[in-house]
UniProtKB/TrEMBL annotation:
InterPro entries: Acyl_CoA_acyltransferase
Domain of life: Bacteria
Record protein name field: N-acetyltransferase
């Protein structure tokens, strides 16, 4: 990982991305029930998604709502501190969680950010468009020049 800060001091991280297919906003405790339902319904699908090669996430046994809440609180704290940026992917029509996007420092010397995303199995057709729209968003609105797109 680089010795440089993940984002420049004073950088105001974008807090949304809107398309006709989905809305991204920072993941937080308010998404707990819908987030938990989204990923627990799609464990096999997520594990087969590029960027999740080690098979450790999501956990096959799931999580309690309390443990998932702790995870969401950690992501929200990382966002507030500028250490990482996790976004929930919402259906624009109903507001239900249909996926997540993670922007964290890359462990690779050649990259400055690792970009991972997933969508629910019943929304698999959005996987490619989400990855493409996030890639364009990073280039347009974020301070990174060499993202690791995890095989996308």
């Amino acid at each position: 990982m680089s010795q440089h800060p993940f984002v420049p001091e004073g950088f105001a991280a974008p807090t949304s991305l809107d398309t006709d297919r989905f809305h991204l906003e920072p993941l937080g405790p308010q998404h707990n029930a819908s987030d938990l339902a989204a990923w627990t319904s799609s464990i096999e699908h997520i594990r087969a998604t590029p960027g999740y090669p080690d098979g450790s996430w999501p956990p096959e046994e799931g999580m309690t709502p309390e443990r998932n809440l702790v995870d969401l609180q950690r992501h929200a704290a990382d966002f507030a501190a500028g250490k990482g940026f996790t976004f929930t992917v919402l259906d624009p029509a109903g507001g239900q969680v249909i996926g997540c996007v993670y922007l964290y420092p890359s462990a690779s010397a050649g990259n400055d950010v690792t970009v991972q995303s997933w969508v629910r199995a019943d929304r698999a057709e959005l996987d490619g468009p989400l990855a493409e729209d996030v890639r364009a968003w990073i280039i347009a609105d974020w301070p990174w020049s060499s993202p690791d797109l995890c095989g996308r």
